[in-house]
Write a structure and sequence with these properties.
mainly alpha
Length: 98
C-alpha cells in the first residue's frame, strides 16, 4: 500500500469505532456459574466454550481447574459493581473492625 491508502478513512482501525477497550470482568450475560470463563473469553476474544473446556481439562488432568476457577471468581471484578468478591469481603472486614 502507498501512504495515501494507509490513512484512508476505511483503513484506520481506530476510526471504525471499535477501539480495543477490553477489560477483564465477570459479565452478567453468558454466565453459567460465576462468569469467570465468559469474562476470560471476552477479554481474550475467544469462544467461552473453549475456556470452559480448558477449565474441565485442567480439572481432569490434575485438579488445577477448580482452584483456578475459584481464584478467578474471587479476584475478577463483577461487570455491574466493578469490584471483586475479595475486595468486597476485605471492605466488609475492615468496616467491622472500625
Amino acid at each position: 500500500m502507498n501512504a495515501t491508502q494507509d490513512f484512508a478513512p476505511g483503513n484506520d482501525p481506530s476510526a471504525a469505532g471499535q477501539a480495543d477497550t477490553r477489560t477483564l470482568s465477570r459479565p452478567d450475560a453468558g454466565r453459567m456459574i460465576g462468569g469467570v470463563a465468559a469474562g476470560l473469553a471476552r477479554g481474550a476474544g475467544v469462544d467461552p466454550l473453549l475456556v470452559r473446556l480448558l477449565f474441565v481439562a485442567l480439572t481432569l488432568m490434575g485438579g488445577a481447574g477448580v482452584p483456578l476457577y475459584l481464584a478467578g471468581w474471587l479476584l475478577i471484578p463483577d461487570e455491574t459493581t466493578g469490584t471483586s468478591l475479595a475486595s468486597q469481603a476485605a471492605r466488609a472486614m475492615s468496616a467491622r473492625r472500625n
